[in-house]
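fyi for ur records
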Amino acid sequence: MIAERTLAQAAHAWGAQGIPFNDEPKNELFRTASMERATTLLNQSVALRSLMLLSGENGVGKSALAGRWLRSLEPKVYFPVCITQASLTGIGLLALFLQKLGKAPKHQRSASLKLLEEAFGELGRLIPVLLLDEAQNYAMSALEEVRMLLGLNLPEQPAFALILVGDSYLLSTLRLRSHRALYSRIAAHARIEGLSRSELEPTSNTSCARWESNVPALNRLRSNF
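which gave:
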């Protein structure tokens, strides 16, 4: 937050109207082909309450895309929950999930599971959507916990839609024998690719278009960028 204010003050001092390559919520992401495909699969996965894996190298925009997509979900249809604390254990993950559903977790796991069933029941027709960011860093106990929660009370469909967001090693990690049960549930996988040469120039132009200044020297620098 402090860094954002400092950047905004510096931009104002130079007469700039915006900061290039700044990922602000109000700014639309540059949509690449892999992002469009990922968005399509995300929409299909939550509609079917299935498990989807969203992966890619660091810095390609996985979390930015997932966060904006999650905020864009129709609130009359979905109840989105995002968890980014990848250091949580299985018990910690269950407790935080309950809190985000508006329930106070209990010390006994059985009591917490009962509360979770009640929370899902209170949602009615709303589809819970759980997004786990940095999923490659979760402990085995946490991933196993969330897998078992998918089959809570043996519903006809999974109890919620699950989106795992992680780096390129996540898929390899889930293929290990210890995660085989969770891996077998993956219904869709989208990989966010880095910008191609044909996409690089439009991306730069889109971002630099926000960098308008009343200082001629800066505008010449922008045009030469």
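Strands lie at 51-56, 78-83, 127-132, 161-166, 186-192. thats all i got for now
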